[in-house]
Amino acid sequence: MSGNDRRRDIDRPLDELHPNERLKANSRFLRGTIEQGLADPITGAFAEADTQLTKFHGFYQQDDRDLRDERRRQKLEPAYQMMLRLRLPGGVCTPEQWLKLDDIAGRYADGSLRLTTRQTFQFHGVLKRDLKPTMRAINAALLDTIAACGDVNRTVMAAANPHESALHAEVVRLSQEVSDHLAPRTRAYYEIWLDGERVDPGRDEEPIYGPTYLPRKFKIGFAVPPVNDIDVYSQDLGFIAIAEDGELAGFNVCIGGGMGRTDNDPNTFPRLADLIGFCRPEQVLAVAEAVVTVQRDYGNRVDRKRARLKYTLEDQGVDWFRAEVERRLGWQLAPARAYRFEHNGDRYGWAQGSDGRWHYTLFIENGRIRDWDDYPLRSGLREIARAHAGEFRLTPNQNLIIANVEDGERARIEQLMRAHGLKDPARQSALRRNAMACVALPTCGLAMAESERYLPSLITKLEAIVERHGLAEQPIVIRMTGCPNGCARPYLAEIGFTGRAPGKYNVYLGGGFHGQRLNKPYLDNVGEERILAELDKLLGHYARDRQPDEPFGDFVIRAGYVPEVTAGRHFND
Ligand code: SRM
Ligand code: SF4
What we know:
binds iron/sulfur cluster
């Protein structure tokens, strides 16, 4: 079948497609009635249809789920509030921007900054009436939230690797170029939030996306081996940097990764991306645009659960997809080149880049930055931002790098870290340093169980177990999410937990240590007692029988606890 004979949902009448397609088409390039909703003082919410459109502007309408029952009892509307997400390609910001974001967190949000698994910031708890000042304050920091969410390309990730300074700078630059190239062109964002000049929506245009944008969200990331911190195989489109003689030669290109699944729906599954070739740095933009437009045209616009690129690949075939990309490019991708990943975590503490500057990777538990009674993390980072002349880098594991510190400045940063009691990552257990959790309750509307608020205490209990088995120094990648959507990429963890119901989780085992292999379901819908008992047994076995340097994820497969995924690049359970 040639490309043109295939089903193109984008050409079908809107009434045959998912209702969101009509919504986008009729939104006048993402305007909808957001402005009217903003002006309505009676409710803290937006109209239902607009809540789909506001995602493209970078925010989600949520309500505080801790207060739901009480508000219902009092016959009040839910405690509506917004979660705002920044578009921050490469995860880099300046100390001046940090200070402005810190100020926004205190002034308009819940007093916290949340570093995400895609290297950006989220604010929680912003009220509708504070949205416009918040957006304007973000703009004043020379940042924005456009396309941080919605059916478009999201924040483009880039390896946070502190060692390879020149490569890192080049890759961050490219991630920013790709992000800008694929950003929506509608003026709606500027009109609504920044009082920009009004244009006739009839004259607005989206040269890459068209009026119905993409069928679903789209994610791009750049990895720099040997570190796979961005989990490149989980991206819709991944670029793997290939260096030759210390210079960037180009990128291997991989497509079709994704984590999201729905329990008991075998049509949905996590999937690892396929390598489809190699391109040179100056070809990256064209490749990104070609992959995005093939997905725009051939992605599923009927069933949003099957609308990610990974399903287009499953349905149409990887070879066909690559051929269609090459047809649009007018040239062929070169064969993929050799590379090797070693791990997908962060390396904590001080590291010196190839240009002699210093970088300090700080452990931020689950990405949450606030002042706790016994840990003034936000204040400490604010003081560091006041003194720091380099930049901050957010890592894909929700941590923070105080980056580009000159030799002479290092002592001052260290003194500030000590003065504010910032936790030394070396004093955290190997288990905790390699763990991450998604946000989940109380803000995430899709959470079925706790995650960010629960994982720290589970880790404390697991620490006692690993210590007993003599495994205290063993890094084991643990990731938890409050539902199967997979926001902390749990299906790539050596031990993954996904929420099923309050206090109940599915347990997955056997992910590859450098993000190269999906894990497999091990336990279904179990509570803490069972989790601890099972992991006690497995970790004891691992301590006795592991081979030298054998990661836990490899051991559970060799020992037969879960099968290796050999056929295909995804699992169904
Ligand atoms: Fe996510 C939805 C939080 C990274 C897969 N994600 C959500 C929402 C917006 C819930 C919603 O739709 O109402 C969550 C908001 C919670 C809150 O209160 O803040 C949410 N996702 C997050 C973050 C903040 C998790 C974190 O703890 O850091 C991450 C923000 C990333 C960013 O900066 O852009 C986040 N989400 C991810 C990732 C990881 C990644 O991209 O590397 C994934 C898996 C990869 C993937 O996309 O396949 C992910 N989020 C999802 C999905 C499932 C998508 C799917 O294909 O099925 C949803 C639900 C949906 O889209 O319908 C979702
Ligand atoms: Fe919410 Fe689920 Fe994502 Fe966690 S994994 S933030 S519970 S959507």
